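ok posting inputs for the uridine-5'-diphosphate job
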Amino acid sequence: MSKDEVVSPHVLIFPLPLQGPVNCMLKLAELFAINRLRVTFLNTIYIQNLLLKHTNVQSRFSNYPEFHFETIPDGLSEDHPRSSDKLLDLADGIEEVMKPLFIEMLTFGKMSSKSSTPVTCIIADGGYTFVVDVAKDVGIPILYFDTISPCALWTYFCLPRLIELGEVPFKEEEYDKRVTGVCGTENFLRCRDLPSFFRIRDLSDRIIQYNLQEIHEIPRSQGMILNTSEHIDGPIISQLSSHCPNIYSIGPLHALYKSILLSAQKTSEQANYSNSLWEDDNSCMTWLDAQPHKSVIYISIGSLAILTGDQLLELWCGIVYSGKRFLWALRPGSIADKDEKSKTVEELSDATKDRGCIVSWVFQEQVLAHPAIGLFFTHSGWNSTLEGLIEGVPMICWPYLLDQQVNSRFVQEVWKVGIDLKDRYDRVAIEKAVREIMEDKKDEFQKSCSRMAKLARQSVGDQDGSSHCNFSRLVEDIKMMRLLKPSS
Ligand code: UDP
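and the output
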């Protein structure tokens, strides 16, 4: 097909092979499908198999004849754990195996300009830094969707300045020092609140270099999609727009998704599907139904974080000593020391049977929306933060890696919807924070959580909401996109 021929819009969606990005991008894909765009969703084989096993994606997306799944290998063996301590293996697999296959797909395959249905727009996760070069080489417009938090992304963009100012790298004794190099956050951001890998002392470290590359490549795209809204992140969006002028902030995406599906005459059940890579244990919903209003602490550390045996014990004790009811999603593989885990979990779950429910994985959006939930003990992943924010549930933040260190600080200092327990892995601090949120300052937290929830909902609640408008603009822009002149 020649570049001058008018072709129908065809979006290729390419998420990082992790729970958060896959969940987000599936929602975006379905919203495009409802808007009658042709969509190809490119998953790794590993992720696609998990989705087929644990969700109804196959039947759900079969309702959209213009939607197709494609798969690509991630370069790792089937039994590789793909855990957060092995993310660099995944980066190697992507570079060595996935990247050449991706280039081939777009140059000669059924998505290339030579095919009958060429891709006219690529939407790739911001973590896929190589995609912008591929897109330019084959002449396809590209938008990056950065599924991490915009506040953390902003610190990424500030990294060169932080290095220039000598604020990164920093020593452990400087953790509490205020950072001046992240515009707009001077009053509250400390060294310890920067992304986890900014703690690395060696600037030639691969992850730092990878980060610098990411902020170099993203502005070369035609635009950037963010999972946030003006109401949540207005000042950060305006800082980011000095680097990427064309921003589509369409979040909280899970709430926009529900709102659009409901207005497309879907039932609330049809607007409430899980994209879990583990099997949801729905028995916890029956357990929650029997608990009093706002009485339960929901505990989850997301899909990547790993607890040490010691951390598990401190967390357990803090929660148990608080005397509150709890629902704990204890993901398989989330404890580093397996022996410690089985001993602790067995002993402690026996002791707390009357007020605790432990499962391996839940449909979190549904759990957070349950009236019995009064507190979210979270690792502060960006999706979890948005899910808690929109339900007006106060949070205790126990961040582990990547953007979580930044998110937890914003939860406490900017949105004022929780307490940041960063780097304080002890039972006394946990028990104290639980009591503060559920007893001593209950009304104060409820008030600020309801305020933020209301604002977040306004962005997605109706056609005039900012995220609704930005999503419509995104769809219109995609419809107008045409193949470009290849750069080589
Ligand atoms: N999640 C879930 N069930 C669980 C734990 C997590 O459905 O038991 C979902 C959660 O709703 C969120 C995603 O997994 O959408 C986790 O993404 P997040 O960005 O919060 O953290 P990550 O897992 O990437 O660290």
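notes: The domain at 283-457 is CATH 3.40.50.2000 (Rossmann fold). The two ends are 18 Å apart (CA to CA).
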